[in-house]
Amino acid sequence: MSQNPKATHAATLRVTIAEPLIVGPIDGRVRAVVPITGGTITGKINGEVLPGGFDWAWLYDDGQAKVEAHYVLKLDDGSFATIVNVGTCKPVAGQSETFSGQAVPRFETASTTYSWINDAQFVCRFTSRMADGYVDLELFIVE
What's the domain range around 31? Predict the structure, then answer.
């Protein structure tokens, strides 16, 4: 019998965002594209979030959203990494501009320092504060 997986904290991100671009409605849902303008990552992974990424979200009538964020990091060793973070979120009760959710981030990098992130399995919890212009993420390694 194998042990249950455990999750160990790996990093904290603060990703700054711009106003969403509303593309929908399309097929009964609304496409929102949220530009990523920068940010930081600290912990077992350190660096900065570069401007130019996007979160491609589907917004549903019940307030929930499916999200798929793509962005680039400049790591503290001078190399780059990409993240694709896919998940779901919903509004926090009583806070119309705040969403809470979970996602599964996948990394790619050629960094020798951070090559381990290519194969690690991550999960994250996040809170998006649209009115304040940022998303906070807590990443965990599943072992």
Answer: 7-142
